[in-house]
Amino acid sequence: MSGGGVGGGSMPVIVFPTSVDFYFGDPSTHKRILTLYNPSEEFSVHYKVMCTNPTFYAVVEPIGKISPQKCTDIVVRHVAVSSPQALKKVDKFRVTLAVDPSCNTPLGKRDILATLHPGVPEPESGSTSLPHGQQQQQQLISSTSNSSDKEHKIATVYHHPNYVACLAAIICLIALCLPTEGEESASNLTDNPWPILTLNQKLVFAYVLGLVTVAILRAT
C-alpha cells in the first residue's frame, strides 16, 4: 500500500492508488477503488471524500469511519464518460481524516487526481490482457496439454513391437545355438545341414543380440 505525506495536518493520509485513470474505450476502468488506511494505533478516524466535479463521479460511502490500523475500500465510478467535456479532463478528489467529524480542521488530507483518457489502456510490456494469475494458469494448462500430446504420440509410436528388432534377435539366438568351429561335437557332424560358425562370428552375433535387446527394452 502506498503512503502519502501530510498535507495541512498532523496525520499522514495513506491511500492507494495516488491517482485514478479512466479509459473511454474500456468499461472495466469506469470503476476504480481507493483503499484508505488508518495508521493510528489508539483511535478511530473519520474520513470524507470530496471532489472538484461531483457531477462526473459517484462515490460509494464518501463519509465513514476507520478503526485503528484498519483499512477501507472506497468505490469511485465515472458516470459522465459519454460527455465530451469529461474527456482528458483532470479532476481532483480530496480525502480528509479527522477524529471528530464535526471538527472543521482535519488531521490530514490528501489530493488524488482523476483523468478520463481516450481509447483503452496500453498493455504492460511483456504481459497479456489476462491477469497474472490467469496467465500462469493458461501457461500451466498449455504446458500440460503439450506434455500429454507428446506422451500420446510416444505411446502411439511404440504401441506396436519393433518386428525388425525381434527378427534380428531370433536370428542371433539361432546363430549362437549353431556348432562352433574347432569343437569336438562339430567335427563329428560331417553330414550336419547347419553351418558351423567360428568363434569370432559368434562373438559378433552375441554383440548384435545385446544391442537389439537394449533397443527392444527401450521401445517397451
Automatic annotation (TrEMBL):
It is found in: Membrane. It is a multi-pass membrane protein. GO terms for cellular component: cytoplasm; membrane. Residues 12-159 form the MSP domain. Residues 118-147 are annotated as: Disordered. Its main location: membrane. Keywords: Membrane, Transmembrane, Transmembrane helix. The keyword Transmembrane helix applies. InterPro entries: Ig-like_fold, MOSPD1/3, MSP_dom, PapD-like_sf. PANTHER family: MOTILE SPERM DOMAIN-CONTAINING 1, MOTILE SPERM DOMAIN-CONTAINING PROTEIN 1. This is Motile sperm domain-containing protein 1. It comes from Lepeophtheirus salmonis. The gene is MSPD1.
